[in-house]
Amino acid sequence: MKNRKQIDFTGAISSIFAIFIGLLVGLIVLMLSNYRQALPGFFTILTGSLTHGMKGVGQVFYYATPIILTGLSVGFAFKTGLFNIGASGQFIVGAFGAVYVGIMFKNIGSVHWIIAVLASVLFGAIWGSVPGILKAYFNVNEVIASIMMNYIGMYAVNWTVKGYKPLFNNLRNESKNVAATAEIPRMGLDSLFPGSSVNGGFIIAVITAIIIFIILNKTTFGYELKAVGYNRNASKYAGINEKKSIILSMTIAGAVSGLAGGLLYLAGTGKHIEIVDKLAPEGFNGISVALLGVCHPIGILFAGIFIAYLTAGGFYLQLFEFSTEIIDIIIAVIIYFSAFALIVKTLIAKYSKRKHSKGSIKSSGSEGGI
Amino acid sequence: MEYIIEMLNITKEFPGIIANDDITLQLKKGEIHALLGENGAGKSTLMSVLFGLYQPEKGTIIVKGKEEKIKGPLDANALGIGMVHQHFKLVHNFTVLQNIVLGIETTKNGILKMDDARKKVVELSERYNLFVDPDAYISDITVGMQQRVEILKMLYRDNDILIFDEPTAVLTPQEIEELMQIMRELTTEGKSILFITHKLNEIKAVADRCSVLRRGKYIGTVKVSETDKQMLSEMMVGRKVNLTVEKAERTPGEVVLEVNDVTMMSKKEGHTKNVVEHVSFQVKKGEIVCIAGIDGNGQTELVHALTGLEGVNSGSIQLNGEDITKKSIRYRNTHGMSHIPEDRHKHGLVLDYNLAYNLVLQQYFEKEFNQAGFIKQDAVNQYADLLIEKYDIRSGQGRETKVRSMSGGNQQKAIVAREIMKDPDLLLAVQPVRGLDVGAIEYIHKELVKQRDAGCAILLVSLELEEVMNLSDRILVMFEGKIVADLDPKKVTINELGLYMAGSKREGDSHEE
After folding, report:
1. Has residue B341 been placed in a domain?
2. How far apart are the first and last CA of chain A?
């Protein structure tokens, strides 16, 4: 009998491999577009975020906050056997909840921002629960339902913001400023990262990652959710209310995405809900982050920071007359290759087999036969 | 004597395990050669090597006197080797004919010419007594028929070496009988057959010779006519195996399960017939009651009603005197009912969970393993280790093993351990030894008898006549949704039982005790 769990690093290794290939492709693209500037440009991608010292680091955390949360949303749903492609809609609906409370509920003092954040969680949860209910009771595929909910969410929010005077700033075609009391406090991060936009939202995101980790791995609730995800029939047979599990799983995923929207739009960095027909990109970046982080909450935390780091560095590419879209290409390639985890796994297995070839152990009971 | 296939000193390794260790297998022309071994003994691996799905590390394969390198199924096909896989490889929304010609369609200028193919298929099916409707869709025909299609596929390709990988696992007793007949006919037509199985009866019935594998090693080849079941099972398992179940007489105690006039309507669209019709029976403490019947006569639905997976349309179910007809699955599970489900992959296990998590699948929420919503990991681990040791559940990495990677026998042991450890009043066992080898069967049967002796009421649902006769104290025969007979296994012969199951003999309608 083996002691304790052996920690499986293959996921992390394959992500690192994917990052390496992604950067390599980025370098090639840089060389193709402008041979002379390629190396300095590439160097900028890697270090650009640090140009302004601690301020730069703070900016990275600021960019990372929403995508960590949408990543957690997607990753959490995925662990419970559901593909939440609706993070985008949940994000914007959550943002709406936060902005609404932020503008309308003045004069409630220092709890204002907390109420606003809770509103974003609640709105996102409601938006996420719809595909969950449809899946549990009518067997509607959650992918289709949540894609639809993305568009319904976006247009509903645009329509409401535009149609409801107290919310709408018609000079700029966007929502009004939220009250100062609704902005997320800095929680001391401003003295650590002076001059940056980072705020307490980042801390909330980290705590959320830890909570999700605990729910999934330490609680009976997480045990049920994962069991339903792996095998709905066996869970039902074991007496788990599988319909409830599916609905709760999507509701939590929605809540986390909604939180992402709330935190971003309450950051006090001049973010407003703009009336444009465009799905929030943070939702889809969440899918990338979840994949790169192999759907593990802590992996997602680092993946979100990493992608934010590249994105922040990418802004400086303009100094070398490159377009910032190259960053998107690099991120896309990274995600693409993280899907190759299996190949990397086989390669690692082959390598370690060759290492201790002869004297292979015949494990007594394990069955290799088909 | 001329061999049509010789596999000499084959060695095939997988990471951490040697699946085939220096195995030699020689197939004569025109014989039925059985390949016998427990689950995970390496039979399927060896056949996959012959079929070109795996490349062996060592060893040579000689087909019809020539050494060959078989790199894939196409090579195997070219050499006349065909295989019926355990899980059929058919396209469900194609017709029988389309499936048979798939891959070697007859065409003219790129356009399908099915007429020639149809002629050949009809000819073949008449010659070998393999009647199938060439225009039926695979999804509409029975498993037995699907198997015939697989056989026809091989014949259509003019294969003369036929591999059957556990062909009887999915068949009813009648279909098995028919298959045996077909196999005999094939050999008289000059085909050679390799027959992979772990069922001794079938080997005795059709095979000429038998090679035995145990844990990846070659044990020996014997002439079937010169051996008996006892010896074969000893070769396979490596120790003496008790083939008959020993159990003492027991007088049943009070009633544990009472089923009253239960009727269930079919859930399938367009079916108006009742799948379970006015079924009533009782199961008492300390007895094994067996529901026998051919698959699809309402047993599955009845069990689903008992466990709460499906509701009933009328009638009631009582457990220990309490009406549980409308109670939840969780309620039944925690009030004395245990269930070894028919389909262990679909209902019994969460294959991607590790062994420890699967062993607490019915109990994780109880105080022993749950504190304020948190799983007590240490308690779960301890409990898992206890069960693994007590029930000898073997796996690669102990309690951390992903259940998916365990052998069928050990998966089943895990379920049996989990359900018995709940110390149930009623144990529902549905085909508890399906697909298992003699060693595991012996073990599970013993456990069931032990539970009975400890005062548990056991309701066994089985399709295998021998199991029914051996194990039960009372037999209820189910036919077309009704219980048509209540029999004493000591006073009835296997033949009679078969007649009841086929519906050609009955004891008066819905029998009540």
Report:
1. no
2. 24
Say if the Cβ atoms of A234 and B347 lie within 8 Å: yes
Q: Residue B367 has what DSSP assignment?
A: T
Total domains in chain B come to 3
Q: Flag if B43 and A369 touch (Cβ within 8 Å).
A: yes
In a domain, B136, yes or no: yes
Q: Please write the tens of the pLDDT for every residue from A140-181.
A: 999 999 999 999 999 999 999 999 999 999 899 999 999 999
pLDDT digits (tens, 9 = 90+) for B310-336: 888 899 999 999 999 989 999 999 999
User: What's the complex ipTM?
Assistant: 0.80
What pLDDT digit, counting tens, does each position of B247-302 carry? 777 788 889 999 999 999 877 666 667 889 899 999 999 999 999 887 778 888 89
Same domain, B41 and B180: yes
Nearest to A238 among B16, B43, B362 (CB): B362
- The parent domain of residue B269 ranges over 243-336+424-513
B309 inside 8 A of chain A by CB? yes
Q: How confident is the model at residue A1 (pLDDT cuts 50, 70, 90)?
A: very low
| Residues 6+ away with beta carbon under 8 Å from A32 | none
Q: Among B237, B255, B276, where does a domain finish?
A: B237
Q: pLDDT at position A10, please?
A: 67
Residues B316 and B170 in one domain: no
**Do B329 and B359 reside in the same domain of the chain?**
no
* Residues A87-103, mean pLDDT to the nearest whole number: 96
Same domain, B230 and B247: no
B21-to-A357, B24, B395 alpha-carbon distances in Å: 16, 9, 20
- Looking at B394, B423, B452, which one is the last position of a domain? B423
Q: Which residues of B219-238 are buried (b: 16+ CB within 10 A; e: fewer)?
A: bebbebeeeeeeebbbbbbe
Q: Report yes or no on B365 lying in a domain.
A: yes
Write down all domains in chain A, each with its CATH number in brackets.
58-312 (1.10.3470)
pLDDT at A352 over 80: no
CB contact under 8 A, B333 and A1: no
| Interchain contact, B45 vs A368, CB within 8 Å | yes
DSSP for A18-60? HHHHHHHHHHHHHHHH-TTTHHHHHHHHHHGGGTTTHHHHHHH
B282 lies in the same domain as B163: no
CA-angle at A261, arms to A247 and A202, nearest 5°: 105
CA distance A370 to chain B (A): 6
B223 shares its domain with B301: no
Q: pLDDT tens for residues A39-70? A: 888 888 888 888 888 888 999 999 999 999 99
B146 compared with A117, residue with greater pLDDT: A117
- Mapped onto helix, strand or coil, the DSSP state of residue B210 is strand
For chain A, the average pLDDT equals: 87
CB crowding A57-74: b at 16 or more within 10 Å, else e: bbbbbbbbbbbbbbbbbb
Instruction: Report in angstroms the alpha-carbon separations of B184 from A326, B160, B391.
Output: 69, 14, 41
How far apart (Å, rounded) are the C-alpha atoms in residues B312 and B125? 43
Is B200 contained in some domain? yes
